[in-house]
Structures are given as structure tokens and as C-alpha cells.
Design a protein that fits this description.
Length: 329
């Protein structure tokens, strides 16, 4: 029997991969339907089945990424189950049965590896993988979906990949400032302090992918810029990745202004959740208008995510589904 072997950096890391009493290893064996052998600092599997070998390599690589991200003792079998179930079988959430080889290939291609990053980012559903593929295939992408579907996080991760691999020169982050009970002008501090609560989720996403010190240096050097949407007027953004988050709260006029800021060699990612529009009544959402108007324009992609793509706490998915069911009644 020819074996396919992965050499793990040291025996301590191998022990963490295997889990307490080989609990993780047993989960992997059950998933693959074949034995996995641990010897020294090596993990081996029967190399004659190409599909099982590919799955084995992907699973171990993903677990090693999780270990490098966390300094804690790696014994959480629930995390390994999530890798096996969400990451490899997530494409079958609709009940379609077996995952096609084309879907698996798409998933494998659409991981996001950021130079100098603390983790590799993996799409966890087919919808998320298609979103990443769209960002790489189109210069302007709309991502519409519920909270927790990964649209903002994946857009930020892809933007970091493009800039830190020197394919683009800067990242511009913007959000509409929608006042709900408090005026921005009454918040304490200068403009940066006032803007921080609105932009914080975008910085949080960055801090999950690259070291905080790297984020700080990119902001200080101007490689990463954050500004209110109103400050985009009159600008032309060249050789940049521009992210408009919470786009459901733009007006039609604001959205048109923003979209026409796009300059040469730039990419624009627009994310929003149409179930969380905070605009005054009778003020139409610029996101809804733009998606309907531009969905068939060449060079623009529109990706709609759903509750099936939610990867936060499982309770979030159930909450979203409950609201969706109420709306259908």
C-alpha cells in the first residue's frame, strides 16, 4: 500500500492535532472512512485514493492553521467537527446530498492567505466561496446578506490580501453615518474619535487576520484609510480596494456618488443587509436601488447570501430564520 504522509513540525504539535486520546484523529478517520496513522512527527493515510488524500491534506492543513492561531491547548473536538462538517460538507446545507468535485475545487481555491497574517481565512459555505470567487473575478461586487454571513469579514480579508501582496496600494473603508437618537456631532473627541464606533467592526475584522501592530502601522502610514461616506464626494480612488459597509443605509444619491468614485485599477466591495435598513421612512435604500439597477451590468457581480451562510454562534442563525419565517406569514 502506498501511503501519503504529512510531516508535522514537531511531536508536540502532532499531539495537539491528534487530540486527547486521539479523539481528533478518530473523528478524521470516521470522516474519511479510512485509517490514519501517526508515527513520530508524521501523519499518514492510504495514498491510493486521490479524493481521500486531498481531503486528508486539507483537514490537517486547516487544523494546523487553527493551532497556529491559538496558543491554547488544542483538544476541542467540537472545533474539529466544525472543520469536517461546515468547511467540507457546508455546500450540502440545502439538502442536495453529496458535494460535487467542482464545489470542492471552488472551496479549495477560495481560501484567503494574507501575507504576514495570523491565520488563513476559509469560506465555510458555498455562498461564501462564491463571494470570494466574485471578488477575484470582478472589479465591483455587491454582497447582500444577513448578519453573520461573513460578507464584511471576507471583503476585509480579501482587501488585505490584495494590498499586502502588493497588487493594490491602499484600502479605503467607509460607512454611512446613520444617526439613531444621537448626533455624531455630540460624540466626544475629534473626527477620528467620532468615527471610530462606526468603523470599529471593520478594524475588528482586520485584527482577526493580521497582527494589531500591522493594522496600526498601515493606518498610520495611510495605507488603510477610514472615512465617513460623505467625505468621499469629489474624490477619485485609484489603485485601491474600497469597501462600503452597511450599504443598506445609503440613500440613492449617496450610493451613486460613492460608485462613481471608482478610479483606475481599483476594486470596490459593497456589503449590506437589507433587513436592517435604518433610513427614515419613505427614503429608499441606495443598496436596493443599485442592486436592481446594476445587477445585469457587465463587470459587476451581485452575490446574495442567506441564513444558510451564517457562521456565527448557531443561535444567530436560528434568530435570523425566526425573523424570516415571521415575514413570510
Amino acid at each position: 500500500m502506498s501511503a501519503y504522509t504529512i510531516v508535522v513540525p514537531d511531536s508536540g504539535i502532532l499531539q495537539r492535532v491528534c487530540g486527547t486520546n486521539d479523539s481528533n484523529l478518530k473523528l478524521i478517520e470516521s470522516f474519511l472512512g479510512t485509517s490514519v496513522f501517526a508515527c513520530g512527527n508524521e501523519l499518514s493515510v492510504d495514498g491510493e485514493d486521490e479524493e481521500k488524500t486531498r481531503k486528508f491534506r486539507f483537514i490537517v492543513d486547516r487544523i494546523l492553521d487553527e493551532i497556529s492561531e491559538s496558543q491554547d491547548e488544542f483538544t476541542d473536538t467540537d472545533l474539529v467537527r466544525s472543520i469536517l462538517n461546515a468547511d467540507l460538507n457546508g455546500f450540502a446545507q440545502s439538502g442536495a446530498g453529496r458535494v460535487s468535485s467542482a464545489d470542492r475545487a471552488l472551496f479549495d481555491r477560495c481560501s484567503i492567505s494574507v501575507p504576514g497574517g495570523v491565520r488563513k481565512v476559509y469560506p465555510r459555505t458555498k455562498g461564501q466561496a462564491e463571494f470570494v470567487h466574485s471578488m477575484r473575478s470582478f472589479d465591483m461586487v455587491f454582497a447582500v446578506g444577513p448578519a453573520g454571513s461573513g460578507k464584511t469579514f471576507l471583503a476585509v480579508a480579501e482587501a488585505l490580501r490584495l494590498v499586502l501582496s502588493h497588487q493594490k496600494s491602499s484600502i479605503v473603508l467607509t460607512r454611512p453615518v446613520v444617526e439613531a437618537g444621537e448626533s455624531l456631532g455630540f460624540l466626544p473627541g475629534d473626527l477620528e474619535d467620532k468615527l471610530n464606533p462606526y468603523i470599529r467592526p471593520l478594524y475588528d475584522a482586520m485584527n482577526c487576520v493580521i497582527p494589531r501592530e500591522t493594522v496600526r502601522k498601515m493606518v498610520e502610514s495611510g495605507i488603510v484609510e477610514a472615512a465617513p461616506l460623505a467625505y468621499m464626494r469629489g474624490r477619485t480612488l485609484n489603485d485601491s480596494v474600497v469597501i462600503l459597509d452597511e450599504a443598506q443605509n445609503t440613500t440613492v444619491e449617496q450610493m451613486k456618488m460613492f460608485l462613481t468614485r471608482m478610479g483606475e485599477d481599483s476594486k470596490v466591495f459593497i456589503t449590506g443587509d437589507i433587513t436592517q435598513i435604518d433610513l427614515p421612512r419613505r427614503v429608499p435604500s441606495g443598496l436596493l436601488h443599485a442592486v436592481n439597477l446594476l445587477k445585469n451590468v457587465q463587470g459587476i457581480a451581485v452575490k446574495e447570501l442567506s441564513s444558510e451562510d451564517v457562521v456565527r454562534n448557531s443561535l444567530v442563525k436560528r434568530i435570523i430564520q425566526a425573523y424570516e419565517n415571521e415575514e413570510k406569514q
